[in-house]
Amino acid sequence: MTDRGKLLSKSNFLLGCDCPVKLKYFKSGYPSLNNLNSFLEFFADGGFMVEALARALFDDGVWVVPQAGETPEQATARLMAVPGDGVWFEPTFVVNDMLVRVDILQRKDDVLRLIEVKAKSFDSSESETPFRGKREGILSGWREYLLDIAFQTDVLELAYPKMQVVPELCLVDTSKTCLEEAIFNKVELIIDKDPGSTGPRAIYHGDIAALRSQHFLGFLNVRLEVDELIATVRSQSNSLLKIAADPTIALDPPISSKCRDCEYRKIDSSRNGFAECWGALAAGDPHIVDLFGAGLLADAAGNSKEGVNWLIKNGISKLVEIPPKIIDQNKSTGKRQIRQLECTKTGAEWVDPLLKDELDACEYPLHFVDFETSRLAVPYHKGMQPYEQIAFQFSCHTILKLGDKELQHTEWINVDDAFPSFHFASALRDAVGETGTIFVWSDFEQNTLRDIRRQMTSYNHADKKIATWIDEIVPDRKDGGRVQDLLELCREHYYHPQMGGSMSIKYVLPAIWGSNEELWRDPWFAKYFRESLDGALDPYSALTGLILEAERSNIADEDAKEVAVEAVRDGIGAMRTYQEMMYGLSRNDAKHRDAVKKMLLQYCELDTAAMVIIWKHWMSRLASAK
Question: DSSP 3-state assignment of 263?
Fold first, then answer.
């Protein structure tokens, strides 16, 4: 019997295309950060919803479910041995130690229609074939998707050499408007798994006949692209099959700046893939790949983007040993790199005196604002387009005047099954009023308000006062608006060694919080203090969840007495949690919905409190520097 662990699946193939050493580590069972990646989990669920809609269009489709003692590929062979046309969901094929599980396979006469369903979007009004650029080459953003289906096509043609295979990508067409039968609440996630699959089960329970004229899916023939890539796929498959068969095989790791985000890095285990790839050069802490914009470094000869390779060749892995001569200090990236290098060497933070002028120019009241939004392939409400954004929550901390002892907090969250963005904008106007500076972290909030303003026009929303108000506040403070981006100020005027190469608030807050004990005792922020071995726990890590008694009928374990409601700690987690609250398994459980709502409010409140903490730290440091 074939050792299934030695087979090369399509996910193995794509992993190996990204980096063959990653396939080696995967097949060897190395621990990976991807196992805990909420970003991947969120978008995987979105993919399952799109698949549910696609399968609903083939109401004669049959799930491939193995009988006792059967493998999935044996079950597939049994069902397809029956003569005649047919449609199968999740059929599995194993040929020459390559394994593929096809989303949807349709047989008609001597043609096999291979359909790969993706939550990837395209706009059919712009191009019927979005895969190619002006020079007719395959665009990099589509290459992985096309390699995926080319690998499947190759295996299927080996399995059925006398049949014609027509490969198609089923994609989300954002030019289409979603009607009643193609919206989110027509697709349900349930706790058991898809037959023959490893993912969550998603089922469509709307009007299938109506769905045929209302769906937003596009089925694109990619035979030309597959033919262009097939030689590469076969060559790559041959190489990767050797790794799958023997993951102990010696490989020369292609180390580079890309390794910074490797899922096999920062693993607290003796089996650390990053450490094995880099060998003696893994020891740098902070490492050269942690330099801000490390991939843009030039080498000593001035060759652009060759700096990391030059450092590797010269045996340099510690960030503090990067020679300043290879940094272009005439560019903004280079200036930031030099600042990171200097602060890392000294261990001291840097606060630019010019930051004081920027902060003093801001007008009271000061409003610190954060939004939570969601955009899904399957829209929440009819009339929307796929991946159209909704704004479902905001938090606002306000300091009314200079020296004010009170920190006010306002929050809003949508809990109704209705398009929320216009109510969101109205509540936001009530919170921040007509005066004062609005602090944000990045331009996300401004772009969200611009998006709502466009929606007001496209949906003929009648509130002209809100529209005018958005137009007036959205520009930057320097351009006559009310918004000041703290991320922009951080980029130009602040650095802390604990931030590494990141300017995410999730890095800036812990760096500041851990080094300023006065903040721990500040009445505004004391509730976020949790003692740790190093002094104070990162406030995001200190957020707590809730434990509820298990009363829901959909709890799989009948012996379960408690249900944990996890704390939300990042923006993707907030989107995922909102989706669960509104349309998930617990949507009819009032107690659970209330607990989830509390987790969302807790997280968003910290996001704006974090900005106040950073602002107050900056003001304190600038005052003491006089």
Answer: coil
List, for residues 446-476, the tens digit of each pLDDT value. Answer: 999 999 999 999 999 989 999 999 999 999 9
Conformational region of residue 560, where left means phi above 0, alpha means psi within -120 to 50, and beta covers everything else: beta
Q: What are phi and psi of 277, to 5 degrees?
A: -65, -45
Contact status, residue 417 vs residue 353, Cβ threshold 8 Å: no
Contact (CB, 8 A) for 61 and 105: no
Q: List pLDDT tens digits, range 282-307.
A: 988 999 999 999 999 999 898 989 99
CATH tag for 4-245 (out of 2.50.20, 3.40.50, 3.30.300, 3.90.320): 3.90.320
Amino acid (1-letter code) at residue 274: F
Identify the pLDDT of residue 553: 46
pTM comes to 0.92
SS3 for 172-233, per residue?
EECCCCCCHHHCHHHEEEEEEECCCCCCEEEEECCCHHHHHHHCCEEEEECHHHHHHHHHHH
Tokens 């505004």 — which residue? 524
Q: From the CB of residue 401, how many other CB atoms can be counted at a distance below 10 Å? A: 10
CA atoms within 13 A on the CB side of 564: 5
Q: 290 near 321, Cβ under 8 Å?
A: no
Neighbour count for residue 268 (Cβ, 10 Å): 6
Contacts of 92 (CB under 8 A, 6+ apart): 64, 71, 72, 73, 75, 76, 99, 100, 101, 102, 196
Vertex 291: Cα angle to 540 and 40 (nearest 5): 50
SS3 243: helix
SS (H, E, C) 14-46: HHHHHCHHHHHHHHCCCCCHHHHCHHHHHHHHH
Question: In this structure, what token pair is assigned to residue 212?
Answer: 């045929």
